[in-house]
Amino acid sequence: MKDVRLGIDVGGTFTDFALALPDGLRTLKLPTTPAAPEQAILDGVARMMRDHAVASERVESIVHGTTLATNAIIARRGARTALVTTAGLSDVLAMGDEGRFDQYDVNIIKPEPLIPRWWRYGVTERLAADGSVLLPLDEAALTTLAEILRAEGIESVAICFLHAHVNPAHERRAHEILAALLPGVFFSLSSEVSPERGEYARFSTTAANAYVQPQVAAYLDRLETGLAGQRIEAPVFMFLSNGGLCHLDIARRFPIRLVESGPAGGAVFAAELARALGEDQILAFDMGGTTAKVCLIDKGVPRRSPSFEMAREHMHRQGSGLPARIPVIDLVEIGAGGGSLARVDGQRRLRVGPDSAGSDPGPACYARGGLQAAVTDANLQLGRLAAADFDDSGIGIDAALATRALQADVGAPLGLDPAAAAAAVAEVVEEQMAGAAREHAREKGVDLRARTIIAFGGGGGIHAASIARKLGCTRIVVPMGAGIGSAIGFLQAQAVFEVSRSVAMPVDRFDAAQFRQIFDEMAAEAGAFVAAAAPGKPQSAQRTLFMRYRGQGQTLQIDIDSGAFGADGGAVLRDLFQGHYARLYKRALESIPVEITALSLRVAAGGEPAQALAVTDPLTRRLPDEAPLYDLASRGMIPARQVLRAALDAGPLHGPLLIKDPGTTILVPRGFRAERIDGGHVLLTRDDSTEV
Q1: Which of 423, 602, 582, 587 is nearest to 526 (CA)?
Q2: Do 617 and 666 share a domain, yes or no?
Q3: pTM for this entry
């Protein structure tokens, strides 16, 4: 009988496991093995199967998300990648578009392309905007180019021709020629990866896909082999950036769709909780060992976007990263986690992150060779964490090493004792996370003060109260299983795939036949991907139009019930757009023509998504009644009560308080009270009357 499911989230510091058994959910957190990420997975799976007496044949499915693609892009550790493009367009990746993240900075520096100029090659070919051939593809030049690519040791090739999203014939032929001459080399075609208008975004997305494809494919091959060695024959699904699942073959072809898979799992986890609690406006806050993520959730649905930016470099500002035109859950991720390293720069400014100690060597307190102070060292010094909190992960904590690193890296340069240095590190990283949330809310026109924060991840419960103060929020929910929220979210997801197409269709010249044909083609493509991940299940589709007034740079996303419109479809769509525009901007512009610029189709497996069971392995170890906790107001250590989550059953408790949970700690400072609510979740409420 197959009655067991596994959710596995590989982060930059920890690998999290959620084992769904018939009687509840079991959890585990192990250090990630960065040199071979699959090793931590295999070790954790073997341990959970052994500890809970689960036979391999009982495993129904494994859902997996990873930061492998994201980390390769941020750290620039991808494959030797070449760009093959239309002659004259080799510099599109470097030129970008007209957008500027700081319009007043005359010395603005945009992010470097993933593919350097010496590996960007132009070949003769040319398509018109309607897809007709202006210049045929120079096939002889491709044969010569193959020799150059072989000599350069190129591992992956991005093929991006002008207007290939309208007519992919030249890209497909170029792939056919080069693949025959370069066995073992990976290829990414822009007409498959991102078949949409806009050369820069399409080229950037395809380049990123090619950049990480060899690494991701090799990793998935090793993972499959390792699981087979443990006699686990259950299907393995990858979690996508849009919150859905896909088969491994799709992940190998389109690894760019995995770049936000871990954070997207956390957003699904928070959204399910928001629906269960009846919370309409949520700010999801996920802090792990390497990064922190924030996401806006309205009425139990995470906000989505047809694109996002990879590796933002300048104060989380929009436009300072590399664009990727793929469907994603709309969130912001910054380098602020437990492993984020602290140092004092030449102007005596304390900086924290984005570089991280990861799991190897890890923060100084891990005693694995790390010498620099990290956020985890600061939390240990402040009494927010204890050595025993890491017992289940197999990490032996040495608090003296944390003190030494904090004093050397922060205390001595700034003239602070180790405790004050640790408090400064915590303050800086908390302000960075609050700043990312403010910037994200500003971009979306959202007031965060009315929102409830759902905090999870290994560090979410420790820092949530301080961030709530900075943002003006008064309520925080720390859910059951918060330490492995993304892994639980994986088990709550369903098979979903999205495809988009660019069009140029004025509504006053609406072509109903063409409209239906495009949607039918998209439905066949997306439906095939979903069927591979969920064979035999019924499918549902959500159709979205991107519309604007002619001449505008921005579009509105408008959901429609079906792709079936008659001869008067243009008028119907114009009225629909005008209504949306008036609701958003208070008035419509009646005299300006309306046009459709793109179509999107989201296909999901039918039926209810699988629901993760309640966590049934709460922390049971004995705790000292009190622990010393650093108090910023008195600038010294004060006694704070320590309890397990179950202690809240007797009623609310006021801070200062530490609540210990598997994989995380909840810090309840002065001015907050904590109580247990339905589902066993912890609610922190700000109470300024008790704050001193």
Answers
A1: 602
A2: yes
A3: 0.87
